[in-house]
C-alpha cells in the first residue's frame, strides 16, 4: 500500500510505510533493501550498499532529483533552521522600515561596517534577497510536498483499513486472551466496540474478514481458520496536518497581497481642527503597489476634544492610564456622527481603521517681527520626550518683513512647570496645571528656500546666530499662557495663546487582507491541533477456536507517539464477551 | 502590612520551599545512584547465567536485601510534598499580587516570572500524579528556585496598574498563554536535557561516564524521555502558535499593525520556527532522537532569551518590564 501513498523523501514514518523498526532491521540484515534508489545521496541518508553505479541521470533526471530533494523532509528541515537563523539579525540591527532614523545613526557610528551591512541588506532583513529566498524556497518545498500528499490523502480517505498482518508480536502494542464465545461473536462485539456508539460518525473504520487455515511458515506457527477485524481511525489527523500546511501557504499569500493593496497615512490634528481622507491631507502616506488613490473614501474628521488621565499615586506616579479622543466624522453624503478613539480601540470607518498613536500639546504661538507685522501665527505641535510630557518643538519664522533676519525658536513646553533654584525649569506632571513655554532664539537664514526638504520638528542651527545676553549666556524666554514677551536683539515679540490645545497623532490604515490573514491563521491553529492530538491508530484482531476455546489476539499501531495505544488495545480486548486476558510481562515503557 | 509586601514575602517563602524540595530530590537522586550500583553487585552476586545483562535489572529493585526499596525514596517523598507546599505559597503570592495591583497578575517581567514558575511546577506535579516523574524534581525545582530569586532581585517592580496599551482582555489571553507555554517548555526542556545526558552516558561520552553521573543510570531510557518531552512540546507549541496569533490580533488593535518585526515578534517567530523544526526533525530519518532533542535545547534557550534578553537589551514596543 505504500506504493500509492505519497511520502516526502526522508520521512521516518512506520505508520504509512506499514513497516516497523523490526522489519527494517530484518531488511538491513538481509539483502540490501532495494527501496527507492533516488540517485545521489539516497533518501535514507546512506547510499544503498551494493548499488553498483548510479545510472546516468540526464537533465530530466537531474530536475526530478532536484525536485525530490527540494521537497524532502531533510531540506524542509534545513530551510526551517536557516529561516530561524536568518530572522535574528533583524532584531539586532536597526531596521529601515521600522526606524529609519536609527539606521542613519548606526551608519554614522559605524561607517565601514555599516556600509557592508547595508549592502547585504542587514538594515532591511525581511525584504532582503536572502531572507526572501529562504522563505520562498520553503514555500515551494511546502507546496511540492503538500499537493501530492493531499491527493494521496484524498484517495486514502476512501481506503479500507489495511489487511490483518500475519504476525502480531512485532507491533508496539498487543494483547491476547481466551473466551468461550464463538469467533463470530467476538468479531461482532469488537467491531461494534470499535465503531463506537454514534452510527454516523464511527470512531474506527472497521472491516471484518475470514482467513483460511494455514500451516506453520517460518516463525509463524500453524493456525486454524480464523476470523479477523481490521480497523483504522484518525484520518482527520492527516487532514489536520494538510490543513495546517495549506493554511500556512494561504497565510503567506494573503499577507503578500495585503502588502500590495494596503495604505497607511499619518496625520497630526489639534483640538477643534480636522482633516480629510485624501492623500494630500496626510503628513506621511505610504501605500502598496496595487493601491488606487481613488479608493480613499473622502470622509472628513474633526477632533472635538482630547482627554488623558495619569496615575497620581506615589507608586506609579504620572504613568498614563487613559487616552481618549472625541471626534466627529462627516461622511461624503454629509451625514455626521460622533465617535471615540482610544488606545486599543481604533475607530473603523469605510473599511479603514483609525488609531490613536500619539498625543501632546500644540501651543498657540504668534511672532510679531520688528516692524510690527505678524510673521507667524499658529499651533505648533511639541513632541513629548518623557513620561512627564517635557515636550520639544521648533518654530520657524521665514515670513518676516523684507530685509529682516528670519527667526527660529527652539524650546520646550512643560505642562506643569517648576523652576529650580539654578533657574532651570522642569515638568513635574503630564497634565497642564501650570504650563510654561521655554524658548531659545536664533536668527539668520533658515535655509527653507534652498529646496532641501526639512524636518518640521528640527531646526538646523549651524548657520544661525543664537541670541545671547551681556555675559554671553543664551537668552531663554519664559512664557505662560496669555504672555507676550519681547524677543532679544529687537527681533520683535512672541506671544503664547491663552489656552493650550492638545494634538493627537492619528494613524489611518486600510488592509483588505486582514480577514483572510486571520482566517488562515486560525485554520492553521485548528489543523495543527488536530494533527498533533488526534490519534491515528490501527487495530487488528484475529480470533479462532482450537481445543474448544476461542483465542483472541489484538495488535495496535499508531502514527507517531501515542501514549493511549496500549490502552486502546486493552479496551478492544476487553470488549470481547467473556474474555480472560493472558498475563503479560509489564510494559517496559512504564519505567521511571 | 501592605498586601503587596505580603505577596513578596510569600514568593520568598515559596523560593525557599522549592530550594528545600530541590535538596530533597537531589538526595534522592544520589541515593538512587548508589542503589543502582548495589543492585548491580547484587545481581552479579546472585547466580546469574553467563551472558545475562546486569542492566536489565527491573527498575524498582526487588526487595532483595534486608532493606525494602520503599523507604529509600523518603527523600523524594519530602521533595514532592514540599513542592506542593511551595506551589501553594506561590499561588497565594500571585493572587495577592493581583489584588494589590487591582488587575491580572501577569503584566510585567516580575509577574511573568512568578506565573511561569508556577506553571512549570504545576506541570511537574500534575504529571507526577499520573506517572512517577520524581526524577525530574531536582531540576524543575532548581530552575524554578533560580527563576524566583532572579525575579525577586532583578525584575521586581511595585504592584500597580497598567498603561492604556495593556488594558485589554488580550493581556489575560495572549500573555497568559505565553506564560503557560513557557512553563511547559521549561519542563520539556529538562526532559530533553536529561535525554541527551543519559544518551551521552549510554554511548560512552567520557565526561558523562564518570561516577559523578551515576544517577543518570536511574533515569528513564532516552526513548521514554524523548516521547514524554514530545508530548509536552506539542502542547507548548500549539500554545505558542496561539500566543503569536493572539499577539498579532492585539497588535492590530493596539499598535495599528498585526506584525511589524519588533524584536519580541522576531524572537517569538524564531522560537516558533525552531520548535516547528523540532517536530520535523523527529520525523526525519537520521534526525529523530538525539538530534531532535538538541532543537528543544536551542528552542528553550530562545524562549529564555526572548524573555530576558529581548526585554532588557533591545528597545522595542514590548518594553513593559517596568525596569528602567
Ligand atoms: C513554512 C514551513 C513549515 C512549517 C512552519 C511546518 C510546520 C509543521 C509543523 C508544526 C508540523 C507538526 C505537525 C505534526 O507533527 O503532526 C509539521 C508536520 C509535518 N510537516 Fe511541516 N512545516 C513546514 C514545511 C514543510 C515542508 C516543506 C514539508 C515537506 C517536505 C513538510 C512536511 C511535513 C510533514 C510530512 C509533517 C508530518 C510529520 C509527522 O508525521 O508528524 N512541512 N510541519
Automatic annotation (TrEMBL), chain A:
<keyword id="KW-1133">Transmembrane helix</keyword>
<feature type="transmembrane region" description="Helical">
    <location>
        <begin position="514"/>
        <end position="534"/>
    </location>
</feature>
<dbReference type="InterPro" id="IPR023494">
    <property type="entry name" value="Cyt_c_bgen_Ccs1/CcsB/ResB"/>
</dbReference>
<feature type="transmembrane region" description="Helical">
    <location>
        <begin position="242"/>
        <end position="261"/>
    </location>
</feature>
<dbReference type="Pfam" id="PF05140">
    <property type="entry name" value="ResB"/>
</dbReference>
<feature type="compositionally biased region" description="Low complexity">
    <location>
        <begin position="27"/>
        <end position="39"/>
    </location>
</feature>
<protein>
    <submittedName>
        <fullName>Cytochrome c biogenesis protein ResB</fullName>
    </submittedName>
</protein>
<keyword id="KW-0201">Cytochrome c-type biogenesis</keyword>
<keyword id="KW-0472">Membrane</keyword>
<keyword id="KW-0812">Transmembrane</keyword>
<feature type="transmembrane region" description="Helical">
    <location>
        <begin position="130"/>
        <end position="151"/>
    </location>
</feature>
<dbReference type="InterPro" id="IPR007816">
    <property type="entry name" value="ResB-like_domain"/>
</dbReference>
<feature type="transmembrane region" description="Helical">
    <location>
        <begin position="75"/>
        <end position="93"/>
    </location>
</feature>
<feature type="region of interest" description="Disordered">
    <location>
        <begin position="1"/>
        <end position="55"/>
    </location>
</feature>
<feature type="domain" description="ResB-like">
    <location>
        <begin position="73"/>
        <end position="569"/>
    </location>
</feature>
Automatic annotation (TrEMBL), chain B:
<feature type="transmembrane region" description="Helical">
    <location>
        <begin position="12"/>
        <end position="30"/>
    </location>
</feature>
<feature type="domain" description="Cytochrome c assembly protein">
    <location>
        <begin position="106"/>
        <end position="316"/>
    </location>
</feature>
<feature type="transmembrane region" description="Helical">
    <location>
        <begin position="82"/>
        <end position="100"/>
    </location>
</feature>
<feature type="transmembrane region" description="Helical">
    <location>
        <begin position="293"/>
        <end position="314"/>
    </location>
</feature>
<keyword id="KW-1133">Transmembrane helix</keyword>
<dbReference type="InterPro" id="IPR045062">
    <property type="entry name" value="Cyt_c_biogenesis_CcsA/CcmC"/>
</dbReference>
<keyword id="KW-0472">Membrane</keyword>
<protein>
    <submittedName>
        <fullName>C-type cytochrome biogenesis protein CcsB</fullName>
    </submittedName>
</protein>
<keyword id="KW-0201">Cytochrome c-type biogenesis</keyword>
<dbReference type="Pfam" id="PF01578">
    <property type="entry name" value="Cytochrom_C_asm"/>
</dbReference>
<keyword id="KW-0812">Transmembrane</keyword>
<feature type="transmembrane region" description="Helical">
    <location>
        <begin position="232"/>
        <end position="251"/>
    </location>
</feature>
<feature type="transmembrane region" description="Helical">
    <location>
        <begin position="169"/>
        <end position="191"/>
    </location>
</feature>
<feature type="transmembrane region" description="Helical">
    <location>
        <begin position="136"/>
        <end position="157"/>
    </location>
</feature>
<dbReference type="InterPro" id="IPR002541">
    <property type="entry name" value="Cyt_c_assembly"/>
</dbReference>
<feature type="transmembrane region" description="Helical">
    <location>
        <begin position="266"/>
        <end position="281"/>
    </location>
</feature>
<dbReference type="InterPro" id="IPR017562">
    <property type="entry name" value="Cyt_c_biogenesis_CcsA"/>
</dbReference>
<feature type="transmembrane region" description="Helical">
    <location>
        <begin position="112"/>
        <end position="129"/>
    </location>
</feature>
Amino acid at each position: 500500500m505504500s506504493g500509492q501513498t505519497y511520502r516526502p523523501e526522508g520521512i521516518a514514518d512506520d505508520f504509512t510505510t506499514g513497516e516497523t523498526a523490526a522489519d527494517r532491521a530484518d531488511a538491513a540484515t538481509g539483502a540490501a533493501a532495494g527501496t527507492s534508489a533516488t540517485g545521489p545521496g539516497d533518501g535514507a541518508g546512506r547510499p544503498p550498499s551494493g548499488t553498483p553505479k548510479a545510472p546516468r541521470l540526464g537533465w530530466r533526471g537531474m530536475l526530478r532529483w532536484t525536485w525530490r530533494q527540494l521537497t524532502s523532509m531533510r531540506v524542509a528541515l534545513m530551510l526551517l533552521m536557516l529561516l530561524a537563523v536568518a530572522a535574528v539579525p533583524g532584531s539586532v540591527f536597526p531596521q529601515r522600515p521600522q526606524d529609519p532614523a536609527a539606521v542613519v545613526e548606526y551608519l554614522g557610528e559605524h561607517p565601514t561596517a555599516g556600509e557592508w551591512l547595508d549592502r547585504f541588506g542587514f538594515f532591511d532583513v525581511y525584504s532582503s534577497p536572502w531572507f526572501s529566498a529562504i522563505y520562498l524556497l520553503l514555500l515551494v518545498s511546502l507546496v511540492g510536498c503538500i499537493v501530492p500528499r493531499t491527493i494521496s490523502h484524498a484517495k486514502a480517505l476512501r481506503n479500507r483499513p489495511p489487511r490483518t498482518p500475519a504476525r502480531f508480536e512485532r507491533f508496539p502494542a498487543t494483547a491476547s486472551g481466551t473466551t468461550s464465545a464463538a469467533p463470530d461473536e467476538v468479531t461482532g462485539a469488537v467491531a461494534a466496540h470499535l465503531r463506537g456508539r454514534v452510527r454516523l460518525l464511527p470512531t474506527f473504520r472497521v472491516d471484518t474478514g475470514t482467513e483460511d487455515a494455514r500451516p506453520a511458515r517460518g516463525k509463524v506457527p500453524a493456525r486454524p481458520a480464523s476470523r479477523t477485524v481490521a480497523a483504522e481511525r484518525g484520518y482527520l489527523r492527516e487532514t489536520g496536518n494538510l490543513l495546517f500546511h495549506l493554511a500556512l501557504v494561504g497565510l503567506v499569500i494573503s499577507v503578500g497581497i495585503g502588502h500590495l493593496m494596503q495604505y497607511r497615512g499619518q496625520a497630526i490634528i489639534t483640538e477643534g481642527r480636522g482633516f480629510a481622507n485624501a492623500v494630500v491631507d496626510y503628513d506621511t502616506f505610504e501605500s502598496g503597489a496595487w493601491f488606487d488613490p481613488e479608493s480613499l473614501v473622502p470622509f472628513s474628521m474633526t477632533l472635538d476634544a482630547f482627554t488623558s488621565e495619569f496615575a497620581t499615586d506615589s507608586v506609579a506616579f504620572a504613568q498614563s492610564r487613559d487616552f481618549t479622543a472625541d471626534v466627529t466624522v462627516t461622511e461624503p453624503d454629509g451625514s455626521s456622527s460622533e465617535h471615540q478613539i482610544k488606545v486599543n480601540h481604533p475607530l473603523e470607518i469605510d473599511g479603514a481603521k483609525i488609531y490613536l498613536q500619539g498625543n501632546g500639546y500644540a501651543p498657540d504661538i504668534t511672532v510679531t517681527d520688528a516692524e510690527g507685522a505678524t510673521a507667524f501665527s499658529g499651533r505648533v505641535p511639541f513632541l513629548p520626550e518623557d513620561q512627564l510630557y517635557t515636550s520639544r518643538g521648533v518654530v520657524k519664522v521665514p515670513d518676516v518683513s523684507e530685509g529682516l533676519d528670519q527667526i527660529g525658536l527652539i524650546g520646550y513646553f512643560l505642562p506643569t512647570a517648576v523652576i529650580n533654584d539654578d533657574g532651570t525649569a522642569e515638568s513635574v506632571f503630564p497634565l497642564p496645571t501650570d504650563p510654561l513655554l521655554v524658548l531659545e532664539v536664533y536668527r539668520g537664514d533658515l535655509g527653507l528656500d534652498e529646496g532641501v526638504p526639512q524636518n518640521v520638528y528640527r531646526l538646523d542651527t549651524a548657520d544661525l546666530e543664537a541670541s545671547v545676553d551681556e555675559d554671553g549666556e543664551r537668552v531663554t524666554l519664559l512664557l505662560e499662557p496669555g504672555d507676550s514677551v519681547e524677543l532679544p536683539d529687537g527681533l520683535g515679540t512672541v506671544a503664547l495663546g491663552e489656552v493650550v490645545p492638545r494634538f493627537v497623532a492619528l494613524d489611518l490604515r486600510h488592509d483588505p487582507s486582514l480577514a483572510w490573514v486571520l482566517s488562515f491563521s486560525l485554520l492553521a491553529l485548528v489543523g495543527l491541533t488536530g494533527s498533533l492530538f488526534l490519534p491515528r491508530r490501527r487495530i487488528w484482531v484475529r480470533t479462532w477456536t482450537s481445543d474448544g476455546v476461542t483465542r483472541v489476539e489484538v495488535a495496535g499501531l499508531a502514527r507517531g507517539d501515542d501514549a493511549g495505544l496500549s490502552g486502546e488495545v486493552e479496551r478492544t480486548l476487553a470488549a470481547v464477551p467473556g474474555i480472560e486476558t493472558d498475563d503479560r510481562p509489564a510494559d517496559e515503557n512504564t519505567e521511571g | 502590612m501592605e498586601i503587596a509586601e505580603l505577596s513578596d514575602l510569600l514568593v520568598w517563602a515559596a523560593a525557599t520551599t522549592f530550594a528545600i524540595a530541590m535538596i530533597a530530590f537531589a538526595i534522592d537522586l544520589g541515593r538512587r545512584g548508589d542503589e543502582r550500583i548495589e543492585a548491580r553487585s547484587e545481581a552479579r552476586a546472585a547466580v546469574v547465567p553467563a551472558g545475562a545483562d546486569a542492566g536489565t535489572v527491573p527498575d524498582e529493585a526487588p526487595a532483595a536485601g534486608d532493606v525494602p526499596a520503599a523507604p529509600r525514596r523518603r527523600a523524594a517523598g519530602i521533595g514532592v510534598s514540599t513542592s506542593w507546599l511551595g506551589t501553594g505559597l506561590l499561588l497565594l503570592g500571585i493572587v495577592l499580587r493581583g489584588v494589590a495591583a487591582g488587575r491580572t497578575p501577569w503584566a510585567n517581567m516580575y509577574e511573568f516570572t512568578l506565573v511561569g514558575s508556577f506553571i512549570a511546577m504545576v506541570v511537574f506535579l500534575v504529571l507526577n500524579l499520573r506517572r512517577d516523574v520524581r526524577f525530574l524534581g531536582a531540576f524543575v525545582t532548581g530552575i524554578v528556585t533560580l527563576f524566583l530569586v532572579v525575579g525577586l532581585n532583578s525584575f521586581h517592580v511595585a504592584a500597580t496598574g497598567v498603561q492604556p496599551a495593556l488594558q485589554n482582555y488580550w493581556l489575560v489571553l495572549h500573555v497568559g498563554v505565553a506564560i503557560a507555554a513557557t512553563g511547559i517548555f521549561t519542563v520539556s526542556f529538562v526532559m530533553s536535557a536529561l535525554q541527551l545526558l543519559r544518551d551521552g552516558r549510554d554511548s560512552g561520552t567520557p565526561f558523562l561516564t564518570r561516577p559523578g553521573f551515576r544517577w543518570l543510570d536511574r533515569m528513564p531510557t532516552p526513548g521514554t524521555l524523548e516521547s514524554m518531552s514530545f508530548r509536552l512540546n506539542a502542547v507548548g507549541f500549539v500554545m505558542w502558535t496561539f500566543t503569536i496569533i493572539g499577539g498579532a490580533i492585539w497588535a492590530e488593535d493596539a499598535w495599528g499593525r498585526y506584525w511589524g518585526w519588533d524584536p519580541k515578534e522576531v524572537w517569538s517567530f524564531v522560537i516558533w520556527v525552531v520548535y516547528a523544526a523540532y517536530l520535523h526533525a523527529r520525523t526525519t530519518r537520521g534526525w529523530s532522537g538525539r538530534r531532535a532533542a538538541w532543537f528543544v535545547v536551542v528552542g528553550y534557550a530562545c524562549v529564555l532569551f526572548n524573555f530576558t534578553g529581548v526585554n532588557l537589551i533591545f528597545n522595542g514596543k514590548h518594553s513593559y518590564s517596568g525596569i528602567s
